[in-house]
Amino acid sequence: MSESVTDRATDRSPGRATDRTDFFHRHKDLLERAVAAAGDRDHWSPHPESPSPKVYGPEAAPAGEATFRAHLGSAFKLPGHPQSGTVAVGERSPYGLPLDVDYPQVTPEEAVAAAKAAASAWRAATPDVRAGVAAEILSRLNAASFEIAHAVHHTTGQPFVMAFQAGGPHAQDRGLEAVAYAWAEQKKLPAVTRWTKPQRKGEPLVMEKTFTPVGRGVNLLIACNTFPTWNGYPGLFAGLVTGNPVIVKPHAGAVLPLAITVRIAREVLAEAGFDPDVVLLAAETADQRTAAELALHPDVRVVDFTGSKEFGNWLEEHARQAVVYTEKAGLNTVVLDSTDDYKGLLRNLAFALSLYSGQMCTTPQNLLVPRDGIRTDQGTRTAAEFAEDLAAALDKLLGDPERAAGTLGALVNDGVRARLSEAAGLGQAVHPSQTVDHPEYDGATLSTPHVALLDAAADAGTYTREWFGPVSFVIATDSTEHSLRLFTETVRAHGALTATMHATGEDVLEAARAAALEAGVHLSENLTGAVFPNQTAAFSDFHGSAANPAASATLTDSAFITGRFDVLQSRRHVAPETATATEES
Amino acid sequence: MSESVTDRATDRSPGRATDRTDFFHRHKDLLERAVAAAGDRDHWSPHPESPSPKVYGPEAAPAGEATFRAHLGSAFKLPGHPQSGTVAVGERSPYGLPLDVDYPQVTPEEAVAAAKAAASAWRAATPDVRAGVAAEILSRLNAASFEIAHAVHHTTGQPFVMAFQAGGPHAQDRGLEAVAYAWAEQKKLPAVTRWTKPQRKGEPLVMEKTFTPVGRGVNLLIACNTFPTWNGYPGLFAGLVTGNPVIVKPHAGAVLPLAITVRIAREVLAEAGFDPDVVLLAAETADQRTAAELALHPDVRVVDFTGSKEFGNWLEEHARQAVVYTEKAGLNTVVLDSTDDYKGLLRNLAFALSLYSGQMCTTPQNLLVPRDGIRTDQGTRTAAEFAEDLAAALDKLLGDPERAAGTLGALVNDGVRARLSEAAGLGQAVHPSQTVDHPEYDGATLSTPHVALLDAAADAGTYTREWFGPVSFVIATDSTEHSLRLFTETVRAHGALTATMHATGEDVLEAARAAALEAGVHLSENLTGAVFPNQTAAFSDFHGSAANPAASATLTDSAFITGRFDVLQSRRHVAPETATATEES
């Protein structure tokens, strides 16, 4: 990815080239910076993560909230969107607020037909033009961060600051990262080149060859309830920039954040002279099964999915006509051997388990601790003692209701509540989940993490299942070696999005790195400060890996891009002396 | 792909770094040149395609032939290779020569176990080390080009010069192209980087992050009868360089070229300090079904396949645990509208149909011609007249037995012979296939192309099947527009490896380009000289495309590489002032 990546830019779209390249020229520097950042993997973000008025201006927060509130009880407008009536999806805020937003209703056939009708002009545009449009969409999404933050807060139950950050700027970062990869990947080859092969006698053979990236077809995005934008934007923008129309199928419980996103995308597409149906919303109720129907449509050639292992595996098994990128679930694991900052370790882990009530696909579930203890700067702590210390750290973190609310958020749906009830009977509860009153919303259920002490040998049936929500286990093992073996075996078999090692010795850390490579999972080492196992930074940290069963994709790497388009070639002879520019004559 | 791609080279393999990087340092310039060539797509090859003594030296040809002849009637030696007895695969030259070579017998379980045992050190080596080993293998394969040429000639039936070029230097070019892509793709990210995030108060957060490419698992290569090396090397080298052990499963009729390849690869691996079982040979008889068994083995994570549509589709359907790259078959199409060099067009097409008796996955089968004729510099020629002219051009090309033998080669197997017999009854035969005596070998069956005149409407059932071998159709259509529509429809439905357009008007050529993009196939325009529709040049032309059903891969693009490895990350805090170099402390 070189700085000169735009040198090969050629816009061959007929007629309105000037209009269509406007957004590209506006964002060219940003795109080049993003490509460089994805290569360097140092910290970088053009989207400030602080919701402070000093950053977004004093009007942004109240204006965004007002815009959000205006959606409530209304029919969401998407001008020009194919529509046969409206659908009341029944979104209800985990904080008790009824949303009552109706969305355009569209059948799978209608959605695919509209996407296909919009596809050809979009496909004919250059990667530059598409990347420019995508960057403009992201810029306007950033301006709408407060509106989207409230929509995320009231559909996912995320605490507000998290909803702002993860649902706004961090999701926009992930989207821009996908744009950068998709743009650079399509520009690796020249649009037109000259091939000159010397001959033993006479003139050389000379051909002019063109290389055209062509999108695979309709890209379906099936989004999740908990991180509709953060997990959705990479697929949305990767699909768009590689020349595919995208049908956005939100989770019935979290439509609004993506409806706002689709509205903004369509506005930008129309301004750039494209059919806005390049991006479509396919809202459905929880009872409808349009996701499955859409995913099997012969013209749907790419599927992005975030959600349950069951449906993810079903998609991988059945959507054979498509390239399927899934982010499912697994057994996020922490291996504890030793630490020189036991307080920091406990603080970090307590927060990691509590953040958004453990409803992150990255929340640690299985904490593997040698039965006889870990060495710490506070002396050796057995597995049982460590479990008690963790329980105390959780109580300390969540003792203040305001702070608890700002950390825990609310339980997103009945599935999480059911799992939490079921977990109450498992192993030896060292920190039983407790209900906390929300200082502002009467309707919200706040629950502290449930932590149980398990035995590695006796309780394998329990900890080799995923318990999505505020449920984690301290698992007593025979030794660190045993922990690392268990880590590799369980993650290879059941997958994981995150893994963490706490150890002071370089030899143990090296063994952990080897175990993580064997398990196929990204590793965090000795997190005791302000970086948590469940957080990944766009442009620097990878999220997920096809190397283990929890996902079939990494956000964001080249493999996440290359399945979405093909480069097609044409070749013709030209006279040796003819210049490339005569192509147009 | 920048010139500085090696700046990030770091060999972290323990102990014998000096030995293992030797080959990399020897071939570093070549690798960088190859990466640049794959980006520029101008003509480039480090492997001379001429078998002339002036190029390869006066001794190369006789020495290569002697080495080949020494294999006949012997047991092929692969020192250290896992082996439970030997297998007589029954290779028989299409020119009549019995080969009688026995190969090591190995069960699928034994092969996978040996590959896995060899994998970890290979995976732990750096991309530089692996690319260096691969480049050395290719360099030695180039030195063995005459030995391999005879092995290809006497297993595939290719005429000798073609066997030398396609089986030797051109296959080596394709292999090196795969090495270049695989090497560059793994080096897009830094091995170690520093992440520094400013904090509102106090010191910045600083982390050191490592990125390690990790191969997916065992890579199975299922090779074909007609182009064992040309179609096999891309997968072999892409698999190797991305850190996977490769099990080579040759077609029972064409084992020797790949056995020689495996022997050379194992020699280089051993010299570089690796377990030679990183590359294994799994020879089988035509009756055994080890390919299917190997392809479903849970530890086989990548499959490369060239061959029939039926088995290719079966692999895509059933080898769900693996990433499957197939190159199958389709309806290679020529659309004729007009030409200003009718003689050149006929000469070019006659050669394209005759080369290796049409037994190339790229040989044109369906020639779409407006019933009322094409405009040429020799006047308008109706579809029927064009068919007669083509027949005459074939007779002229193949009239001399020596030249016919050097062009046609021999029919590779009974499947081709059966199809040729079946084709005799189809449509109106304008050039019935004729048998030609080989000037040197009594046992060879040489057959000229069978060309029949068909009707686009009446004979769709015939021309929408693939007739692999010397069978082509002149199909009378209503118009060029009709031809282009048929072209798009049939290729979208049944696939194609190649497409060719003959037209003098830029508007018609533009329409053909649009049709080819819609069909998802690479296009050649107005080939009337020394470049033929069925030939593609490594580093410049793409071969195949996942954009149509004839293949699920392109030789060679990034998608052919990215499914073979994942990048795994680890991260740890470091003090802001610590230098990266302290990692080793």
Automatic annotation (TrEMBL), chains A, B:
It comes from the Bacteria. The keyword Ion transport does not apply. Residues 109-500 form the Aldehyde dehydrogenase domain. The keyword Manganese does not apply. InterPro entries: Ald_DH/histidinol_DH (IPR016161), Ald_DH_C (IPR016163), Ald_DH_N (IPR016162), Aldehyde_DH_dom (IPR015590), PaaN_2 (IPR011975), Proline_metab_enzyme (IPR050485). Keywords: NAD, Oxidoreductase. It comes from Streptomyces ochraceiscleroticus. This is Phenylacetic acid degradation protein PaaN. Signal peptide: none annotated. Residues 1-60 are annotated as: Disordered. Pfam families: Aldedh (PF00171). Residues 1-32 have a biased composition (Basic and acidic residues).
